[in-house]
């Protein structure tokens, strides 16, 4: 039986309730990262990363040396001012760090490119109905085809590395949003299929112990088969040339000429160019989910 990966708050009693899982533990302050990592390891689980959900922009977060060896996923609302970031770049380049920025804000798309150019890995969090797809296309092209050395930007590197023209590709796991890989727990141990559903208190089980084999659990199995409905319902997404690497992720705000369709079609072409050029994989790899 394959155990799912767990995303949960930093709660000792909660973590003590299960063992043998791979865990991404959430904190709201970077100062709690080291103790959260220790709590996961002490509980008999293995650490994927510490997810930091700060209210502050990246330039205002106080990193310190003790966090250097901890895999960090910093979900900052923005980068802040680059002149402030410049003072700590030498230190941050040595961290096992990925910065996640919500790309409903155009300035965050620019920030991801800036961070990558100075050696800080990032992840573009694409938001349905809010993303500037032209700007996202530019970022994706930079991430995969720019010849000047730079840090990775997800989910583009994952898609480029795993794309198969005859198969569907799910890349939600790069943002901890894939029920086939991740289950989300609240402080009481209740289980949701995503962070957004956890916030809405849409739970599929009262405890991780109820799940058993995820592939056989009805709510998970049902969610993983939802894509079939796009075909039986003759949905516009099902006829999109970018379907294999989108699978309806942005269908809630779809229109006849949505930017997401053009973006994913172009990405498939950029991935082909990426493969042909055999872009060298960076020697130093940041943690992977």
Helical stretch count? 11
How far apart are the first and last residues' alpha carbons, in Å? 19 Å
Strand order of the largest sheet: 7-6-5-4-3-2-1-8-9
Gyration radius, rounded: 19 Å
Total DSSP E strands: 9
Shape: globular
Q: Note the run of SSEs as H and E.
A: EHEHEEHHEHEHEHEEHHHH
Give the overall average pLDDT. Answer: 92
Brief sketch in words of this structure:
With 289 residues, the protein is an alpha/beta fold. The protein has eleven helices and nine strands. The longest helix has 19 residues, at 259-277.
Sequence-ordered SSE layout with sheet pairings:
Blueprint: E1 5-9, H1 12-15, E2 22-27, H2 33-42, E3 46-52, E4 72-75, H3 82-85, H4 89-92, E5 97-102, H5 106-117, E6 121-125, H6 133-145, E7 153-154, H7 156-162, E8 182-185, E9 191-192, H8 195-199, H9 218-224, H10 228-232, H11 259-277
Parallel strand pairs: 1-2, 1-8, 2-3, 3-4, 4-5, 5-6, 6-7
Antiparallel strand pairs: 8-9
Describe the overall structure:
The chain has a 9-stranded mixed β-sheet. Helix 5 (106-117) runs parallel beside helix 6 (133-145) and helix 6 runs parallel beside helix 11. It has helices at 12-15, 33-42, 82-85, 89-92, 106-117, 133-145, 156-162, 195-199, 218-224, 228-232, 259-277, and strands at 5-9, 22-27, 46-52, 72-75, 97-102, 121-125, 153-154, 182-185, 191-192. Helix content is 31%, strand content 14%. Strand 2 (22-27), helix 2 (33-42) and strand 3 form a beta-alpha-beta unit. With 289 residues, it is α/β, with parallel strands linked by helices.
């Amino acid at each position: 039986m394959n155990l799912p990966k767990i995303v949960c708050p930093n709660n000792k009693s909660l973590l003590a309730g299960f063992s043998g899982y791979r865990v991404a533990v959430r904190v709201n302050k970077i100062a709690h990262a080291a103790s959260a990592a220790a709590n996961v390891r002490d509980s008999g689980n293995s650490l994927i990363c510490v997810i930091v959900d700060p209210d502050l922009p990246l330039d205002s977060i106080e990193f310190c040396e003790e966090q250097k060896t901890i895999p960090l996923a910093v979900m900052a609302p923005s980068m802040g001012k680059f002149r402030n970031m410049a003072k700590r770049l030498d230190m941050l380049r040595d961290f096992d760090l990925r910065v996640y920025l919500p790309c409903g804000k155009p300035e965050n798309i620019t920030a991801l490119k800036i961070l990558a150019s100075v050696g800080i890995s990032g992840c573009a969090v694409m938001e349905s109905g809010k993303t500037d797809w032209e700007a996202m296309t530019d970022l994706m092209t930079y991430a995969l085809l720019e010849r000047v050395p730079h840090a990775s930007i997800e989910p583009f590197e994952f898609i480029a590395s795993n794309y198969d023209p005859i198969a569907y590709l799910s890349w939600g796991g790069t943002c901890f949003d894939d029920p086939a890989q991740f289950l989300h727990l609240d402080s009481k141990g209740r289980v949701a299929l995503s962070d957004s559903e956890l916030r809405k208190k849409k739970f599929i089980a009262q405890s991780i112990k109820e799940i058993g084999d995820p592939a056989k659990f009805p709510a998970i199995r049902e969610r993983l088969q939802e894509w079939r409905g796009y075909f039986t319902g003759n949905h516009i997404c099902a006829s999109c040339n970018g379907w294999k690497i989108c699978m309806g992720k942005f269908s809630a705000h779809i229109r006849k000429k949505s930017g997401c369709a053009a973006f994913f079609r172009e990405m498939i072409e950029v991935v082909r160019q990426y493969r042909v050029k055999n872009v060298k994989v960076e020697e130093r790899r940041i943690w992977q989910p």
